[in-house]
Design brief:
The chain is mainly alpha-helical. About 80% of the residues lie in helices and about 0% in strands. The longest helix is centred in the C-terminal third of the chain and has 31 residues, at about 175-205. The protein binds protoporphyrin IX containing FE.
Length: about 210
């Protein structure tokens, strides 16, 4: 992909990813967030964060489909950081609008509600990934350690799904499509690694 198309596509990704936030602000200004504005903000930011998590995880498997898709890697950091941004707004919504930034209420909520516990666990898992997303961090940690640390994204995907399922009422299956997408992406990793090893063995045997 040439530079112009890359810049154009990055601009579209920015616009697309920031649209849910801009719509939320627009609805807040127009007093149209519905009967429970806090729940609406938590819902939009939570859903955007979890789908961006899936998009971040999708980059490697999609790239492996064809060498012509290698440019996709240039979007992984952006998608990951946008996911972290929405997760942070989501977390602050809970801290501020549900708990009034009261440490006692926050602590009690984490202890009492398992879905909140899982949300916090997910946030704590993605926090070091966002903090080490810079090129400087990759150099400082070394590629191997950086890759190892960034495997936490897979654990975060699992805790995020648990958070989502535990949040919805029994019998509600709205998290199912997201769960299916994440399950495919999590299974893709070992399959791709096995395929890479098989190809490497085959080319070594040919030499
Ligand atoms: C400190 C961390 C977190 C806390 C305290 C938290 C809290 C909450 C709360 C209170 C809700 C319910 C909103 C409502 O009333 O409808 C919720 C929903 C949700 N959260 Fe989180 N969350 C956290 C982190 C995350 C993260 C990191 C993700 C995704 C990566 C996420 C994804 C979701 C999703 C998908 C929903 C369901 C939205 C819906 O069904 O409409 N949460 N979270």
């Amino acid at each position: 992909m040439n530079r112009t198309n890359l810049v154009l596509l990055k601009t579209l990704v920015w616009i697309g990813c920031l649209t849910p936030l801009l719509l939320l602000v627009w609805r807040a200004v127009n007093n149209s967030l519905g009967p429970d504005p806090t729940a609406e903000i938590a819902s939009v930011t939570g859903l955007t964060a979890i789908w961006l998590l899936a998009a971040t995880l999708a980059v490697s498997p999609l790239r492996a489909l064809s060498p012509r898709l290698s440019w996709l890697v240039k979007f992984r950091r952006l998608l990951g950081l946008l996911m972290f941004f929405y997760a942070s707004v989501h977390m602050l919504t809970w801290m501020g609008l549900y708990a009034g930034f009261d440490p006692g209420t926050i602590e009690a909520d984490i202890e009492k509600r398992r879905f909140i516990f899982m949300g916090v666990a997910t946030y704590l898992l993605v926090l070091p990934l966002a903090a080490t997303s810079t090129t400087w961090s990759i150099r400082k940690l070394g590629g191997k350690n950086w890759n190892r640390l960034h495997m936490l994204i897979y654990l975060a995907a699992l805790t995020a799904v648990a958070h989502y399922w535990w949040k919805v009422k029994t019998g509600v299956i709205t998290p199912a499509p997201l769960t299916l997408v994440l399950a495919i992406l999590l299974c893709a990793r070992p399959i791709l690694a096995w395929n890479r090893r098989r190809k490497a063995r085959a080319s070594a045997a040919r030499v």
